Structure formats: structure tokens, C-alpha cells
Amino acid sequence: MRLAVVGGGLQGIEAAYLAQKAGWEVCLIDRRSDALAGGLCDRFVQCDVARSKDLDRHMTGIDLVLPAFENEMALQSLSAWCRRSGIPLVFDEAAYAVSSSKVESNRLFERLQLPMPPVWPNCSPPLVAKPASGSGSRGVRLFGDVDRLQGCFPGENPPDGWVLQQYVPGPIYSLEVIGFNNSYRALHVTDLAMDASFDCKRVAAPSRLPPGLVRHFERMALRIAQEIHLKGIMDIEAVCSGGTLKILEIDARLPSQTPMTVCGASGLNMVELLGRLFTDRCHVIPRPPPATRGTIIEHVRFRDGLLEIGGEHLMTSGGPLHLETDFFGADEAITNCAAGKSSWVATLIVTAAGRSEAWRKRNRVIENLMTRWPVEQYLDPEPVSF
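and the corresponding C-alpha cells:
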């Protein structure tokens, strides 16, 4: 299989990593010459798909196209080209339109009567403000009281372009659904840990969510997939509070971090499965293999004597990244670390026989890093608590 991954950012890293695990040839396309995923591909093409007239030449021999970006104009251009060329595109435009709008997503949850954090003004502080469009933690703000909210957003609330909801503390979980034509399969639940800016800093599997709640999570995810007639893959995040799951958001695209974690824990490769589905090499979605190995994915940055665990935003300043094995005791790392560098970033991938063993192994990796590098301070920040 020859896969074109369009977009070399965080999603592109995920797609390229998993495609190469499947033994595929990866062509990475990005408008930037220093794309993060530049060291994880077989061929790199610098190209802006929103404006290029040379896609026919760049895509020669490609069997499948996977977009790994969120620019609407570029997505429309790429979709139109794939329709003309007949090359399958792993993208569901209609489902993405719903999931990329938190306003539309919340309306969907309300219509399906699925639990979610209450929306302002029908709730009390603390409040979380999220940009209505886009994904991830970009722009997320937390307000402990109404005065602070009014200081940032004076006048009528919620402000245009924002969603205000009650901040619900508790462990956060993620689950992917894959399929099409009303045939869907829920995959594995993973456990998420956030940094102080609510950016995901760590993913772990197998999940510690109780089995009854796992089944409930799966039913909610499958119901959403059926309602939006999903074609491809969707990620759903939920917080557990008081023994109840509340849906936070959905993303109808290949997510980052969780697919690598699921692959390490169970061997299930979501990119490989998507490729088989979109090229008609698989007509029945198989039951996912059990998550038998403990796996932890974590982001770390070393700079100016500080060794810091943090969200994906740490990785965006790293320039082209490459894959290393046995990275200071981690099974693998996606990193720009090299001899003589005084600062670097890495996504650590640690696996072991079980979740507890993986955590102990992860701790040894951190100890090894602190021994090897001149670390003066170590930080592993968490969201503020009320």
C-alpha cells in the first residue's frame, strides 16, 4: 500500500508512524519544508494542496490519501481532487462538519439525550470556555467565578464563537469508532491525562474504566456514529464524574496519541484498518484484539535545565522528528534529540506486560533522562483544581 499523508503536523506523525508499522510506503505532503513528520516518511513533497496544480504528478502511484490537517479550504481542494482521480480519501466531510463545531456537536448530544456537562447559563461555575470550532485544547480557558468570566467576555454570554460549559473534574477517557454504512465497531478505551492548559500530556492503556462504564461508553459512541452516518473513524472523549460519563467532544478524523497507544496495547493498527476499509479489502470490521500489554504514550521536553512533561504543544516546536528505538529505556520515541543538542522534544512510547509494569518502566525512563541530561527542574503539571 502506498499512502499519501497530507499534513505533517501532530496527526501526520500519527498517520505516518502507524502506516510504517503496517509496512506501507508513506509519501508525506506538507506546505512547510520542516514538517514535524518529515523524518517518518519514505518520500516528502513540499506542496500546498489548497493551491497546487501539480497534485497529479505528486500523487503518482498513490493508493490511498489520508488528510492530517484541519484547514477547510485545503480539505475541500483535496476532496475534489480525490473525487476526480478516483483515489480513496479517508475523510468524511459531513461527519467532520458536525464534529469540528462544538455548537453542532452539543446539539447532537442534546438531540440524542446523551449526558454532557451543562451549558451556561444553565449551570454554575467553575466554567470552561472553548472555541466553537477546531479541536484539541487550543484556546481553552477556565473561570472559577462569573466575575472572572465577565472580565474576559464582557456583556452577553456565551460570546460569539465560544461554547461555555460547566467544568466537570474527573478522569478523562477516549474511544474510537470505525466503520461505514451503519456497520461500526467500537475499539479500545484509553485513559487521558491533561496538563495545566488541558492539553493531553499522557495516554495509557488498558483503561481502568470499570467494565460497565466501558460498555456504556461504547453504546454512546456507536449511537453517535450511526446518527451522523460516519464513514471512517471518529474519536469521542468523556469525563467520569460521580460514576457517570459525560461527553466532552467528538472528532471525525484520525486522532493523535490514542491510536499509537491502542496499537502498543493490542496490536490493532487503526490506519491499516482504515486502509483496508477504504480500498475495499475488508468488508467486515473485525472485533479488536484484547489490550493485553500496558502502554503509555507521553510527551517530554528538555530545555534550559527543565525536563517537562506536557501536552502535544511541546512537540510542535521540535522541527522534523524521527523514530528511535530503546530511547533511554523507552521502547520507542518520536524525537529530535541528537548528540550535541541542548534542547529537544520526544514522544515516549513505553510498553510492558501490564499497566503497572509500564508505569514503573516509564519512571525508569525519566530517571535515565535526568541522569543523562543536566536537569535542574522536573515538571509534570496538572489542571487547576477547585
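(Above: one complete record from the training split.) The radius of gyration is 21 Å.
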